[in-house]
């Protein structure tokens, strides 16, 4: 095992696993920190531990991340990677800064990078500012994210508010001069370097520059340059992406708790395509007016009427989300929805559903926990950042598509479904 990764949410972990697998590494993704990684690490070049720590109190996120780091090191990891969202989802309390600083201290290293750039999905960092396609993140729909509204595009400022470690910029003028120039700039002074990156070429150069650092932090795409370096060092041999994935036969369902603009467009596209849908309301769930049993009954009935998987969603526009949050509190509003979708997923699996498509990192974390699986094999890519995965250890065969809120094309839900046909 060469690379040990700690991801702050489940869909982010899957996204990173896909990038590593696409670049020829054997990857196993585990959910939560197991007692030992010995069995899974045996045939893996990389182990990605998926936490659900993005929006926990910082002290909890640190504790979980350090436990993951210790497990990865015990299994032989030569390098650690802390994966967070390509939209840098965090607040002034954390958790990117506090977790990165804690991992640095744990590893005894004074230097790392922070680079959320993911050009294939429209995220770029230029002059330390994070863009989502043509917009600064602070002008994008991420300004209204239910849990981590992003209202400052300057990542040096954002990260400086989260940690006492010095934060500085390695600007694109340096990045475009290549790996040696980037490496020298990072080594100049201790601290966390926000590194500009606007293309995959930049990211591959950054990967080469950081391959010797004990800790790399970033979005998934900054890992794309690492496997080549590991191969050159003779640490890994090439592997075929998606090796060993098989989808079980059976019925499917789509569960969406993401309120991102993209997920809402994907829901609208599914409706147009004739998918049977049920909209959930956080306040009705909280009052008991909507129960898991009623939702399961809807899904059962809808799946008799169509070959397409039914869609259950709580996704709503910012005004509706704000109303629920005003009444219930931000965290509680999220929890009631997550708990309901998780309970629905568990009941459906018990009734023989085998294919689950879920939208949203927090949502997917709750759904997968309810399905009782803790290890995933990475399968074929549906859209950039989202593969089908199969459960390695559930009671029965299951496959899942765990979509980050902002990922996937408009036709994502049907595209995912049709790939299994
Ligand atoms: N109608 C709603 N009212 C209030 N909160 C909601 C509502 N629908 C969903 N939520 C909550 O919003 C949060 C959405 O987070 P989630 O991580 O699932 O999606 P995302 O942030 O779009 O995806 P990602 O983290 O992958 O970018 C969840 O906690 C979810 O329960
Ligand atoms: O980096 C991303 O955008 C995703 O992998 C993610 O973490 C969203 O939750």
UniProtKB/TrEMBL annotation:
Pfam families: NBD_C (PF17042), SBD_N (PF07005)
Gene Ontology molecular function: ATP binding; kinase activity
Keywords: ATP-binding, Carbohydrate metabolism, Kinase, Nucleotide-binding, Transferase
Keyword Kinase: yes
Domain (Four-carbon acid sugar kinase N-terminal) ranges: 3-226
Gene3D superfamilies (UniProt xref): Four-carbon acid sugar kinase, nucleotide binding domain (3.40.980.20), Putative sugar-binding, N-terminal domain (3.40.50.10840)
EC number(s) on file: 2.7.1.217
Domain called Four-carbon acid sugar kinase nucleotide binding: residue spans: 253-413
InterPro entries assigned: 4-carb_acid_sugar_kinase_N, 4-carb_acid_sugar_kinase_N_sf, NBD_C, NBD_C_sf, OtnK
Domain of life of the source: Bacteria
The reaction(s) this protein catalyses: 3-dehydro-L-erythronate + ATP = 3-dehydro-4-O-phospho-L-erythronate + ADP + H(+); 3-dehydro-D-erythronate + ATP = 3-dehydro-4-O-phospho-D-erythronate + ADP + H(+)
Main function: Catalyzes the ATP-dependent phosphorylation of 3-oxo-tetronate to 3-oxo-tetronate 4-phosphate.
Family: Belongs to the four-carbon acid sugar kinase family.
Name by which UniProt lists this protein: 3-oxo-tetronate kinase
Record organism: Salipiger thiooxidans
């Amino acid at each position: 095992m060469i690379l040990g990764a700690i991801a702050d949410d489940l869909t982010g972990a899957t996204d990173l696993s896909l990038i590593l697998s696409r670049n020829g590494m054997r990857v196993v993704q585990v959910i939560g920190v197991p007692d030992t990684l010995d069995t899974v690490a045996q045939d893996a070049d990389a182990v990605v531990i998926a936490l659900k720590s993005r929006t926990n109190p910082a002290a909890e996120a640190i504790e979980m991340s350090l436990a993951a780091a210790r497990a990865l090191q015990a299994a032989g990891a030569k390098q650690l990677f802390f994966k967070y969202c390509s939209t840098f989802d965090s607040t002034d309390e954390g958790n990117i800064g506090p977790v990165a600083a804690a991992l640095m201290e744990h590893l005894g290293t004074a230097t790392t990078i922070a680079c959320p750039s993911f050009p294939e999905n429209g995220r770029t960092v230029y002059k330390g500012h994070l863009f989502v396609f043509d917009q600064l993140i602070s002008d994008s729909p991420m300004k209204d994210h239910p849990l981590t509204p992003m209202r400052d595009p300057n990542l040096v400022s954002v990260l400086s508010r989260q940690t006492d470690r010095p934060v500085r910029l390695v600007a694109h003028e340096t990045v475009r001069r290549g790996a040696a120039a980037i490496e020298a700039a990072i080594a100049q002074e201790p601290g966390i370097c926000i590194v500009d990156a606007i293309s995959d070429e930049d990211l591959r150069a950054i990967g080469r520059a950081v391959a010797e650092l004990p800790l790399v932090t970033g979005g998934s795409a900054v890992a794309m340059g690492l496997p080549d370096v590991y191969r050159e060092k003779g640490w890994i041999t090439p592997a075929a992406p998606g090796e060993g994935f098989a989808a079980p036969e059976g019925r499917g369902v789509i569960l969406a708790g993401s309120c991102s603009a993209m997920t809402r467009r994907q829901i609208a596209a599914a409706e147009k395509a004739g998918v049977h849908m049920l909209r959930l309301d956080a306040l009705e769930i909280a009052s008991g007016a909507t129960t898991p049993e009623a939702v399961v009954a809807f899904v059962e009935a809808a799946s008799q009427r169509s070959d397409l998987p039914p869609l259950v969603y709580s996704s709503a526009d910012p005004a509706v989300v704000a109303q629920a949050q005003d009444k219930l509190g931000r965290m509680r509003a999220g929890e009631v929805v997550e708990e309901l979708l998780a309970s629905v997923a568990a009941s459906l699996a018990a009734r023989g559903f085998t294919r689950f498509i879920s939208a949203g990192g927090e949502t997917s974390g709750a759904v997968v926990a309810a399905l009782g699986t803790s290890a995933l094999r990475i399968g074929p890519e549906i859209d950039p950042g989202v593969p089908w995965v199969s459960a390695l250890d559930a009671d029965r065969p299951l496959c899942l598509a765990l979509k980050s809120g902002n990922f996937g094309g408009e036709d994502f839900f049907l595209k995912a479904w049709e790939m299994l046909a």
